[in-house]
């Protein structure tokens, strides 16, 4: 088997251009996601993505995390275990948000919600390249 | 009484046009009658007043629509009459009549049209002209009429400005007031453009002071423009047009300042990003007109607004607008006189505000807003000399102090960037020669701190370990060097030496890349010094690096040479030296051939890059000083000598690389130079073995390089080949006997080039006739002739066919038909496909291309494609499975090289004539439908190059003919899915194929109707999972993207 070197850089590339639910700017532009905050352990197939909400009481934190979660669900091989957490100390209800984002059942339930899925897809639109050479 | 009849006819037809079914015919009749009347009047057969007389009963009719029809007829005739036919007297009568009709509501529009026509003709006296606006103001409430009427009114006003400005000036305030009423409430964009222009004319020419505020209000209420054009933009007016005109009105006079400044401030602090941008653009435009004192009372509020914009800029356009506004304000304030009782000048008080905030930001440990602060100060400083001097002298010591005291390298880097901005601002203000004067650098604030800055940057660049800081310092040094008279000669040398040390360091590092970027800029500014310090050192380092045979240092030095050769003054020297190094490398016996070729290949690649860039740039002749012909000769001599004197064969690809350089250089010569070069090559002596045995070359390497020169020469160049027939025949025999592919290709190109360009040679047609007869029958169609022999002949045959085909000679197409027939030949099928590829593609070495001065007819590729396609398609249908591949390869070559437009509009003549989109689409679809089965078949053949070509065509079809793809979707989707799997990589699905397949799969979701795709959605999203784990990153990226597209809700992404 050839080496499969999925790097933090590659994971970051997948999520950098997701749009913020509230602003017409990408998560990278708002410094919500940063390359330094992505960890990949290729041997254990484990990815940890930290993100920093713009303000500690940001009500969109869960939604942003969900967008990242969905984007990676669709774009990373299923052998990876993905943890998505808010950067330590950057949000008031850090624990609750983390628990919600990493609970498979709750993520699945959230995506059953048509309206929510629509919002998520809207944010993910910008991460897709539609131009073809 | 002719005219009476025509009038009756026109009126009757008009009435019919309004009422009856045959509206179009009646309108045409009305038009014809109208033309008749106008002709009569213009020819002097009837008088205008006669027409009025005839119209009399209609004009005074009790039915308003009859009256309107009468006036309309009169106006239409007026618009077609020439000036000479309207006497002053009748003009007065007509004008009075038309003006009097303005109180008759239905007749207003035609009356205005008539007046405009008379204005255009220039038949009205000054008094009558001025009566028009007065009357309009008195009689009409313009805004209650439809758009066309309002438009005519504005056009009449514009015309009046043109025709009778003194009259309008006399009217003065009355006209201004009237105009304000006319314009008030206007909503149509076309009219607004006119109204804004009129407002500008008013502020420029009329006395409007009494109504300045009203005029401003009536214009400014449209600010900011939020207009969005209708789909298809039927009016041809964009929001930007309106914005520009509106801004021009607001900034047209200082009299608006008291009203404009407060509202601009209000808009600049609003919530809408576009309003803020418009406001700041308006501030930038108004500042020079209003003067600094108008803004002075609100200056701190403006500053706050602009600072917020810089710090939280929504997009770069807003940021740029803010910077421009800052600059313009600083410029306006620079020439504002201080009020007597204040201590600071207006400029200083503005800049102090700005500096205070910026320095505060720079003192912040996180330095979040340092970059915008730097840009703000740079903009302000570049406004004027006092601004530059004030900003830099106030802030420079503080920043230098902060750099000295701070240990965090990232912070020092940010501060260095700000200093770099200052140097640029300083150069903008002091670096430009004054009109009629010399540079005035003495007042430059940077000059005073030069030594300190220079020391700081050099120190950082040399010794600091934090790379971004080094890069920022080099940039600053570069800007210092570009500032005239800032650095002393020895300091300039230090900068160049620094650059050199980076250039010679490891490639692929940030410093090396930064040095490559800076090298052409710095060397371009100081070519003499660069030659002395950098160029020679780079070139001298090459032989040593080549001897060590490590690829990275060699590449580093060659990249440096490429970067420096962008400066035209240095190019000749670099090219000459590189050829010299190549010659030494290849003739060094100490190196084994393989290593020598490797180094030489690197040199040739670099040389090619430089030559191509030179060919593309066209600056003052590619080689002002170098003797290109001598360089070519030495390249050829060295290569041939090396090939002859070694036992191991020199790779064909290496010779081709040499030939590529030789070809590019040959194209730089004149025909006389080419003639003597060819003659010199012909008699060349390598001292090992002869290269030419009359009448043709005997050495394959030499023959190929000779062909490169020959095929890139101008048709006017003389060829030293004696009799063409003898040369060609001998060449063919030697090439075929030698069995060398290179020799055959050389022969093919030489002969084809002469056949196409002639070069004044005799006997070409006889030779071709003879060649076709003997070789076609004797070799190509004779299966017993031997595969190699047949292939060599086919190659030459294809090139000669190409030479004819590109100039639309029918012999070329006949020969191509023979090649098409050979596709079914099991020995030659693949070679025949290649042959067709040769004919339709462009040669990389220039043979038979436009650049090599070949005789090429327009649309050759399209014609050739149309010639071959039916034969290929028919042949494919009848072919056995073993033969099919050759047809598919031929198709792939055809599709890949034919212009895409041709593929889509194969029948453009029909479509243009019929102008029928539906028909065109059907033709297009029918054309592609023919191809589709073949295309899909070729996707299942395990050949990467074949697949890539086909996928390119499929992609085009997905985009342009999605309906057709939808019909075959159940075949296409599984095919693409299987091609995108790494597990199937051994079936010719290399990474490029996998990426292309995935991209098309994504494109299908975007272009093809969703209902056809819905059944495949679960399958595609599921089966793409393995592709997410492909060993190649590019494939993973494409897979992730395509899978995301398929997850999106239908039908748009």
From TrEMBL, chain A:
Cite the MIP18 family-like domain residue spans from the record. Answer: 9-82
Q: Which UniProt keywords apply?
A: Chromosome partition
Name the protein family.
Belongs to the MIP18 family.
Name of protein: MIP18 protein galla-2
Q: Which organism is it from?
A: Polyrhizophydium stewartii
From TrEMBL, chain B:
Identify the domain of life. Eukaryota
Leader peptide range in chain numbering: none
Q: Kindly list the places in or outside the cell where this protein is found, as annotated in its UniProt entry.
A: Nucleus
Answer whether the UniProt record assigns the keyword tRNA-binding to this protein: no
Instruction: List each copy of the MMS19 C-terminal domain by range.
Output: 562-910, 922-1004
Q: Does the keyword DNA repair apply?
A: yes
Q: What UniProt keywords are attached to this protein's entry?
A: DNA damage, DNA repair, Nucleus, Repeat
The record places domain MMS19 N-terminal at 52-312
Per its UniProt record, what PANTHER family does this chain match? DNA REPAIR/TRANSCRIPTION PROTEIN MET18/MMS19 (PTHR12891), MMS19 NUCLEOTIDE EXCISION REPAIR PROTEIN HOMOLOG (PTHR12891:SF0)
Q: Which family does it belong to?
A: Belongs to the MET18/MMS19 family.
> What's the stated role of this polypeptide?
Key component of the cytosolic iron-sulfur protein assembly (CIA) complex, a multiprotein complex that mediates the incorporation of iron-sulfur cluster into apoproteins specifically involved in DNA metabolism and genomic integrity. In the CIA complex, MMS19 acts as an adapter between early-acting CIA components and a subset of cellular target iron-sulfur proteins.
The name on file for this protein is MMS19 nucleotide excision repair protein
Q: Upper taxonomic classification of the species?
A: Eukaryota, Fungi, Fungi incertae sedis, Chytridiomycota, Chytridiomycota incertae sedis
